[in-house]
Amino acid sequence: MPPGTAWRRPASAGVQVRELRELAELDEVYRLYDSIWRPDPKNPPVTTELLRALTKAGNYVGGAYDGDELIGACVGFFEAPAEVAMHSHVAGVSGAARGRNVGFALKLHQRAWALQRGVRAISWTFDPLIRRNAYFNIVKLAARPTEYLTNFYGLMDDGINNGDDSDRLLVRWQLDTPEVAAAAGRRPAAGLELSEATIVLARAEDGRPLMGSTPDGGTLLVAVPVDVEGLRGTDPAAAKDWRAATREVLGGLLADGAQVTGFDRSGWYVLELPGKGLV
Asked: Is residue 19, in this structure, part of any structural domain at all?
């Protein structure tokens, strides 16, 4: 086993994570995802047949079990260059298992599986407006955003996205770096020192996005809404305002060469401009 693969799953997760290959197990993944996303029946996140083909071709499907119940799953496939990189297409955890580190346990299993096969990097996308996912990916896993993707999957009419545009951040998880290896045993800091940072996008008192200062280098902050999933149901117009503002500000900064270096748990992306401020 290559160095760094033996990450222990968090004890608090209380789950067993294993690779899934049998048809009945793959059907469980399909049904779990269906219960999480409640998608348009014509466009499910995965099908049992697709999972069967992916596993037959040697790709990754992992499942987290609480006893006999599947409560989380993760699906990935190899990407170019072949067999040294993977794309993690979709991962989900039952709402009843939130807060138990099940997603973290799944990613640790996926990392160990990938390193055993010579894979050194895994990429995936996530909605930049969902703050818990931003914190999980950037802080807990030490993955790094590399690109802002506008309406990447098209309009998504399901129980989570609720007809919103599918803007995504593409992240890269460099599996064999000391930073990523250390993330497994590190307790994330409660907050960052942000007093000297420039706020480029803020949250107004009414919860809507508020444009801040024009960036001129150094440390920059971009806010996200407190709960965009709830906002999509209670105030769709505000949710769309957040999508447009984040696309303009965060997407624009990344296109101009800024780098996301962190995410504060209170709901701020932390960015640095190359050659200015901290690197």
From this structure: yes
